[in-house]
Amino acid sequence: MTISGVGAAVPNDPIPNSEFAALGVDDEWIASRTGVRQRHHLRQEQTLAELALEASEKALADAGISAEEIDFVLAATTTADQVSPGLTTLFRSAGARARRRRRFRHPAGGRG
User: Fold this and answer.
1) More exposed terminus of the chain, fewer Cβ within 10 Å: N or C?
2) 73: how many CB neighbours lie within 10 A of its CB?
């Protein structure tokens, strides 16, 4: 297995730590303990599969290959839109076109 390209996507409209000031914590308190300065949430009309598709398009461009050249898709998340069908099925429905239909879904978050 070779990783030929990488891509990332985050939802728009970042939420800065200052939004949590009402909870009695400030940006520096959060950032010093977690390294997080802002977080992103999907809008109601967005899905994780759409975000995964955007990231995959960037990875394909980074690798300089087409979707049809992909043999295998791996998806891992702790924040799936739904339990079933899994992210890889929804990802394919959103437009991912791997040459072969092999997919693997890894629901992160503690098995075994």
Assistant:
1) C
2) 20
Q: What angle do CA 59, 62, 63 make, to 5 degrees?
A: 90
The token pair at 96 is 């991912």
Sort 75 into a burial class: Cβ within 10 Å, 0-12 / 13-18 / 19+. Answer: buried
Q: pTM for this one? A: 0.65
Helix (H, G, I), strand (E, B) or coil at 20: helix
Distance CA(86)–CA(49), nearest Å, equals 10
Closest CA to 2 of 57, 90, 70: 70
Tens-place pLDDT, residues 71-92 = 776 666 766 666 666 666 655 5
How far the first Cα of the chain sits from its last, in Å, is: 25
